[in-house]
Amino acid sequence: MNDDFKGRVALVTGGGSGIGRAACLAFAQRGAAVAVVDRHAQAAAATCELIAAAGGQALAITADIADEDAVSRMVAECIARFGKLDCAFNNAGIGGAEIESAGRKLGDIDKSAWDKMIAINLTGVWLCMKAELAAMQAHGGAIVNTASIAGVIGLSRSGPYTASKHGVVGLTKVAALEYSEAGIRVNAICPGYVATPLTQASLAARGDKILARLPIGRFAEANEIAELAVWLCSDSASYVTGSAYDIDGGYVARI
Ligand code: NAP
User: What pLDDT digit, counting tens, does each position of 117-136 carry?
Assistant: First the structure.
């Protein structure tokens, strides 16, 4: 794998926790300057401290990806500090437990809960891509969006989450078609069950049942997911665009 990101600039949303933090560290380890974006300033700053302690270069940016002005500012801040944007990992998102109708069937979901999920997990990714594509248009780049196994299969009682992640896969494909000419590759990753704060409660409640159906026999670590995102941004993935990669320990293969 050509993993030399020296001289490149990577932006990661949700960089203050879980998969996003692991990706920030992985980009930095390979020489990239990293814009660490999170809605919590402290979380983003903590990731930057880890990068700095390892000798890397990072900038903490506070932004809510559901807010178009904040997202424009996010890309502007990255460019003001590092001069350009080469790679973007649109990874920030919320799980089903963060909306009020969590665990309900489609017919029992409140519209406000639906709107919250779609605003962050789908509209947020589109807003990020919109700003990033504009920034990459002149020189090309690579974008990776975090979908989920819920982007390729239906997860019962996770209707809004499933719809949002199927949407991310669709957006990814359209962006790949529309921006290949500009030298911009766009892909999605579809993780299965990863041990992060987002899944802490659900894995504690029904982890055993999930494990029983997981061919690989364990949950993923965040860095295992981050590695795929970083590879997709690397020159080693120069022919890969418009794809959605399952990274799920075989979960979807069984279905
Ligand atoms: P995580 O540890 O909760 O990290 C997500 C980070 O994104 C958190 O710091 C979160 O802040 C931030 N964030 C949430 N909404 C945001 C917003 N509107 N603007 C900016 N930042 C925001 O979760 P994770 O497991 O690493 O999840 C990362 C991505 O992977 C998500 O898109 C998730 O859907 C996807 N995914 C996760 C799994 C899994 O098993 N963990 C599986 C498939 C897909 P808060 O702490 O305030 O929420």
Answer: 999 999 999 999 999 999 99
Q: Can you give the pLDDT at residue 255?
A: 76
Residue 89 CA from chain centroid, whole number: 5
251, 232, 241: which is closest to 10 by C-alpha? 232
What's the pTM?
0.98
User: Is the predicted pLDDT of residue 193 greater than 90, yes or no?
Assistant: yes
What are the extents of the domains in the chain? 9-254
SS3 141: strand
Q: From 172, 108, 146, 163, select the one nearest 18 (Cα to Cα).
A: 146
Which residue's alpha carbon is nearest to atom 6 within ligand 1?
14
Residue 186's alpha-carbon distances to 37, 166, 175, in angstroms, are 19, 15, 6
Contact yes or no for 92/120 (Cβ under 8 A) = yes
Catalytic sites, residue numbers: 161
Please, are residues 232 and 91 in contact by the beta-carbon 8 Å criterion? no
Ligand 1 close to Cβ of residue 241 (< 6 A):
no
Domain 9-254: state its class: alpha beta
Percentage, residues of the chain above pLDDT 70? 99
What is the distance between the alpha carbons of residues 235 and 237, in angstroms, rounded to a whole number?
5
Cβ atoms of 149 and 106 closer than 8 Å: no
**What is the number of the ligand 1 atom nearest to the C-alpha of 199?**
41
Task: Report how far ligand 1's centroid is from the alpha carbon of 140 (Å).
Answer: 27
